[in-house]
Structure prediction request, 460 residues.
Amino acid sequence: MSDAVQDKAIARPPALLIPRRKLCFPEVPDRIPYEGPDSKNLLAFRIYNPMMQVGEKTMAQHLKFAVCYWHTMRGTGQDPFGPGTMIRPWENADADPLENAKNRVRVFFAILEILGVPYFTAHDRDLAPEGKTLAETNANLDAVIAVVKEEMARTGIKCLWFTANLFSNPRYMHGAATSCNADAFAYAAAQVKKALEIAKELGAEGYVFWGGREGYQTWLNTNMSRELAHLAQFMHMAVDYAKKIDFTGQFYFEPKPCEPTKHQYDFDAAACINFLRAYGLEKDVKLNIETNHATLAGHAVEHELDYAGFQGFLGSVDANTGDELLGWDTDQFPTNVYLTTLIMLVFLKYGGFTSGGVNFDAKVRRESFEPVDLFYAHIGGMDTFAKGLLIATAIRSDGELARMVAERYRSWDTGIGAAIETGAQDFESLERYMLEQGDAEPNQSGRQELFEGVLNRYIF
Ligand code: XUL
Ligand code: CO
Prediction:
């Protein structure tokens, strides 16, 4: 750790801290520059050049990067085996918690300005401490939101989506909308009402429902159909209230198969889409797909994105990655160009982001405890996505992979295939056809290795 950071961490900054950049981030420049691919400076972008034109949009417009408040500002490094490790010179345990919370917001916006990131995401409870009653909690939130608004106006940084934390407080131990305790449902409703009012006030472009504890640990004590009906009622109430207050942001549902409960109702894109359709929410809610959640569900993220995409549910992405050797939600920063290329290929296929964007729902490792690590992490993730965007754009403009896929399905373009697709065939006519043909010949190689080779040609 640099001496400056250590000194400040020990000395503790003044009671009412101000985000003096030099104090919090002595090694970091006021603005992370773009230095190009030859740069060896890891506090500079090598690929992400926000104003660079890529097709019809700039890189910044394509990627719509967001930094999340929960990991970046509230992540302490705590794990089940030990306490937090993060040195955060702006935190002051001796100060009034509300003043500390307000100051933290100022530091957050300084980080976004330095990175040149245009958006943020947050839960209500990340921002302000809870009080003894709902009224006190709401007042705390209002006080901090006033600072968020000031900082948004000062910097022009926008809210990609807002959400409510319906999982940390013990009142939500059985879930929120799916709790066996009706009062927990009622509290959650009041909390989301307030969160929607804030989303409206901040001009948030979206609102996310992540299941939190909406799931269960054992079938023995669970009335699944009742819980799911309650979840649907809850989401309908949110959609109705948004309409009432004229909050026009996009709603998203974020799939995750497990953690914290064993069976989460929002398991994967397929389960979420089925739920939305079964309960009449399909017109109002899209999906926010997270890479590490996809892999926990046993899917590749491109599968989840495309599954949502072709049915019109593709919304936003929570960018991160898991660890191949660990089976839990490690929320690491993405550094793999294959991953980001495939994510961007899917998004470009469906016309790019509209209300959504690339939100880094990612945290630095417990061992990466200095403030500067937040910058290495985000810069690395942004460069990796920028590279993925460039590669995906090149792949799409050459059209070779798309032609290869089309070629694989050529038997559907004419003859019997085309006749089936137009609905002109039935089991009897197909039986007649096959009795004549004798058998279906395996006439096409899958060419997986060729496909992988073509992809690699764009990557290196
Ligand atoms: C949890 C997760 C959440 C959501 C927002 O795994 O991803 O942080 O993104 O509630
Ligand atoms: Co997420």
